[in-house]
Amino acid sequence: MRPGLLSFDAFLTQRAADRRLARLTHDVPLPEARGLEFGPAANPIPLPAGLRVSYVDHALDAHAGLPGRAPIDHAWAGSGSLAEVIGDGGFDFAIAAQVAQYVPNLLGWFRGIHGVLRPGGVLNLSLPDRRFMFDAGRADSTLAELVEADLLAYTRPSPRQVFAHTYEARAAEPARIWAGEDPARAPRLCGEAALALAQARAAEALAADAYLPCHCWVFAPLSFLDAVEGATRLGLFPFVLNRLAMTEPDGFEFFVSMRRDREEAPEALRALQHGAIDHLRQILERQRRTAALLSGS
User: Fold this and answer.
1) Which of 52, 48, 59, 125 is nearest to 90 (CA)?
2) Which CATH class is domain 5-295?
3) Which residues contact 53 (CB under 8 A, 6 or more apart)?
4) CB 213 within 8 A of CB 161
5) Domains of the chain, residue spans
6) What pTM, to 2 d.p., does this model score?
7) Contact of 108 with 78, CB cutoff 8 Å
8) Residue 254: DSSP 8-state
9) CA 213 distance to own-chain centroid
10) How far apart are CA 123 and CA 110, in angstroms?
C-alpha cells in the first residue's frame, strides 16, 4: 500500500469528519479509479487503497530530505506535455494541495493536467488565500503575469517571481490576521536584509539552472476567478469550474474543483466555462456580502 492510502471504510470515516479532505476528493470516483497527486512531499492526501495514485513533482528527488516522503513517479516542470512525461492518459482525477502557487507556468500546468484526464475527470486543488498568510502584503497576480509565464514557457521560477516572494513576504500569521492584526504592519519575513537578499536570490535564479522554490502566484478566491475568466476568454484555460470554496474563518486556504468537460465543440465549451464562472462569482459575492454584514463592516 502506498503512503497515505487507507482502507475504504477508514477513508469514508475520515472524509466525513474532514472538510479539507472532502473538498480535495470532490467528485473523485469511488471505490476504484486512477489518479495523480502533485507535490505530495511528506504529506500525501489520505486516499482509499482502491485508488491507483501516481505522484508527480518538479523533480524525481523533490523533497528528498523529508522523512516519510512519498516516492515521486514522474518529474514534470509544468510546461509542455504532461502526457509525454507520463506516457499515459485517461486519468480519473488529479489532486494538488498547496502546490499550484509554486508552479512557474500556471496556465501551462493546467493545460498539461487537462490533457491527461479523461473526459469528465476532475482536478481538485487548494491554494493559499494571500490575505491570511505571509503573502498578505503582496498584490494579487495578474492575467498579464500569467500570459507572460505561458509565452516564455517557464520551467523554473523567474527572477521576478523569486524577488517578489523573498522581498514582499511578511511575518503574518492567519490567526493574528483573523483577530484583526493589519498584516501590512508586520515585519518582512526575511527581516531587514530582505531587499538585498531578494536581489541576490533573483540573480541566482537567473544564473543557476536550478529550481528555487517560491510562491510564484498569489490569489484570493475572487482574484483567482478573475484570472481564470480572463484566461478563458483568451482560450488559455481548458477546464470548466465546478466549485470554489471560500477560505474559512481562522484558515488560510481556499479550494477549487474543475473538470475536463465532455463537450469538445469550442463554442459550446466556452459557453459552459463562462456560465460556471458567472455562477461561482454570484455565490462568492453573496458570501462576501453576508460575511460583511455579520462582521458589521
Assistant:
1) 52
2) alpha beta
3) 2, 5, 35, 36, 37, 44, 47
4) no
5) 5-295
6) 0.94
7) yes
8) E
9) 14
10) 9
Please list the residues that pair with 55 across neighbouring strands: 37
State how far the Cα of 258 lies from the Cα of 241, in Å rounded to an integer. 4
Adjacency order of strands within the sheet including 117-128: 74-75, 51-57, 33-38, 91-97, 117-128, 253-259, 240-245
SS3 content of the chain, % helix, strand, coil (to 5): 40, 20, 40
Q: What whole-number distance in Å separates Cα of residue 21 and Cα of residue 97?
A: 10
Q: Is 193 exposed, middle or buried (0-12, 13-18, 19+ CB in 10 A)?
A: exposed
pLDDT in tens, 232-252: 999 999 999 999 999 999 999
Alpha helices in the chain (DSSP H): 8-17, 19-24, 82-86, 106-116, 143-151, 159-168, 174-178, 194-207, 221-233, 266-295
Percent of residues, the chain, with pLDDT higher than 70: 97
User: Which grid cell is 80?
Assistant: 509542455
Q: Which of 186, 280, 264 is nearest to 229 (CA)?
A: 280
76: cell is 514534470
